[in-house]
Amino acid sequence: MTAHDPDVTLRVRDGLADFTIEVPSWAYGNSGTRFKVFSQPGVPRDPFEKVADAAQVHRFTGASPRVSLHIPWDRVDDYGTLAAYAADQGVSVGAINSNLFQDDAYMLGSLTHADKAVRAKAVAHHLECIEVMHATGSKDLKVWLPDGLNYPGQDSLRDRQERLADSLQQVYAALGEDHRLLLEYKFFEPYFYSMDVPDWGTSLLHCLALGDKALVVLDTGHHAPGTNIEFIVAQLLRHGRLGAFDFNSRFYADDDLMVGAADPFQLFRILHEIVQQDAHLPSSGVNFMLDQCHNIEPKVQGQIRSVLNVLESMAKALLVDREALKAAQLAGDVLGANGLLMDAFNTDVRGLLADQREERGLPRDPIAAYKASGYQDQIAADRVGGNQAGWGA
Amino acid sequence: MTAHDPDVTLRVRDGLADFTIEVPSWAYGNSGTRFKVFSQPGVPRDPFEKVADAAQVHRFTGASPRVSLHIPWDRVDDYGTLAAYAADQGVSVGAINSNLFQDDAYMLGSLTHADKAVRAKAVAHHLECIEVMHATGSKDLKVWLPDGLNYPGQDSLRDRQERLADSLQQVYAALGEDHRLLLEYKFFEPYFYSMDVPDWGTSLLHCLALGDKALVVLDTGHHAPGTNIEFIVAQLLRHGRLGAFDFNSRFYADDDLMVGAADPFQLFRILHEIVQQDAHLPSSGVNFMLDQCHNIEPKVQGQIRSVLNVLESMAKALLVDREALKAAQLAGDVLGANGLLMDAFNTDVRGLLADQREERGLPRDPIAAYKASGYQDQIAADRVGGNQAGWGA
Amino acid sequence: MTAHDPDVTLRVRDGLADFTIEVPSWAYGNSGTRFKVFSQPGVPRDPFEKVADAAQVHRFTGASPRVSLHIPWDRVDDYGTLAAYAADQGVSVGAINSNLFQDDAYMLGSLTHADKAVRAKAVAHHLECIEVMHATGSKDLKVWLPDGLNYPGQDSLRDRQERLADSLQQVYAALGEDHRLLLEYKFFEPYFYSMDVPDWGTSLLHCLALGDKALVVLDTGHHAPGTNIEFIVAQLLRHGRLGAFDFNSRFYADDDLMVGAADPFQLFRILHEIVQQDAHLPSSGVNFMLDQCHNIEPKVQGQIRSVLNVLESMAKALLVDREALKAAQLAGDVLGANGLLMDAFNTDVRGLLADQREERGLPRDPIAAYKASGYQDQIAADRVGGNQAGWGA
Amino acid sequence: MTAHDPDVTLRVRDGLADFTIEVPSWAYGNSGTRFKVFSQPGVPRDPFEKVADAAQVHRFTGASPRVSLHIPWDRVDDYGTLAAYAADQGVSVGAINSNLFQDDAYMLGSLTHADKAVRAKAVAHHLECIEVMHATGSKDLKVWLPDGLNYPGQDSLRDRQERLADSLQQVYAALGEDHRLLLEYKFFEPYFYSMDVPDWGTSLLHCLALGDKALVVLDTGHHAPGTNIEFIVAQLLRHGRLGAFDFNSRFYADDDLMVGAADPFQLFRILHEIVQQDAHLPSSGVNFMLDQCHNIEPKVQGQIRSVLNVLESMAKALLVDREALKAAQLAGDVLGANGLLMDAFNTDVRGLLADQREERGLPRDPIAAYKASGYQDQIAADRVGGNQAGWGA
Question: pTM of the full predicted structure?
Answer without folding.
Answer: 0.98
